[in-house]
Amino acid sequence: MKRIGFLSFGHWTDSPHSQTRSASDVLLQSIDLAVAAEELGVDGAYYRVHHFARQLGSPFPLLAAVGARTSRIEIGTGVIDMRYENPLYMAEDAGAADLISGGRLQLGISRGSPEQVREGYRLFGHEPAPHDRDGADMAREHTARFLEVLSGEGFAEPSPNPMFPNEPGLLRIEPHSPGLRDRIWWGAGSMATAEWTAEQGMHLMSSTLLSEHTGKPFHELQAEQIARYRARWAEVGHTGEPRVSVSRSIFPLMDDRDRAYFGRDAGSQDQVGSLGGTLATFGKSYAAEPDKLVEQLAADDAVMAADTLLLTIPNQLGVDYCAHVLESFVQHVAPSLRSR
């Protein structure tokens, strides 16, 4: 059964046309939307993380709050830039948020997307090696350490004069949440990175763009990436089922308001552009009546291959409208899509 979630970019602006005019608005509405989504039968609430931007930059307080207000829905990120993270402190925050939610965290991490500032990770106190031009190697090093400490194995030498009595042996990060290590995802934007993700035993969060441009439609490139990820997972011999998510902007056109906002996206096409000097392929948006959406999405190879579909929602239009988009999809599109 395909899982349906939403992905919020968490934008805010003081524009009079925005329903989210402050960081407080975005944070509180993000919680309210997760509660509404759970009531509608949506399977996941995911949030984008960007630093130095009017977006959600510190995910764990939000994830913990959503976990406290909900009981079933998966809660995740898409994605946390690991260049900025202290792996041990992150493991503490993640463990606490996961325990509050009852083990529902699905953390998407990665090297991150283009930054708002120049080398912002250095301002957070992280210095990559001289050869590591964009911090990608450092992100993977931070990730390896993060995954290692999530295992729950002790590694810290106890003090001979502790404030409180210690358990025997080496100490681990606390609080520890069993099972969280198996719910870490990597945001991959290339074929090679998808295979590396499988080797690390992480789930695949296939990016909204791919750094390959071969002339193929985006969905075919993405389906190929998913196939290579799953094949590599099997070759390595990991236990458990590898999960894959894809994100799409999808808007069922149910009324005049939907058509006014998104009717122009009905003719959307893939785009090719330069990202850091590399040609990349960007996926199109979908906007149509529900029956047409079912046919269009059924022809999207990557949507059909993934087990989790994340709908990118226009959070600045407010909780009520975003809940309307989710309800329209869950009631009028998802049932037919899941039956295929």
Automatic annotation (TrEMBL):
It comes from Sanguibacter keddieii (strain ATCC 51767 / DSM 10542 / NCFB 3025 / ST-74). Pfam families: Bac_luciferase. One of its GO terms (molecular function) is oxidoreductase activity, acting on paired donors, with incorporation or reduction of molecular oxygen. GO terms for cellular component: cytosol. This is Flavin-dependent oxidoreductase, F420-dependent methylene-tetrahydromethanopterin reductase. Residues 9-257 form the Luciferase-like domain.
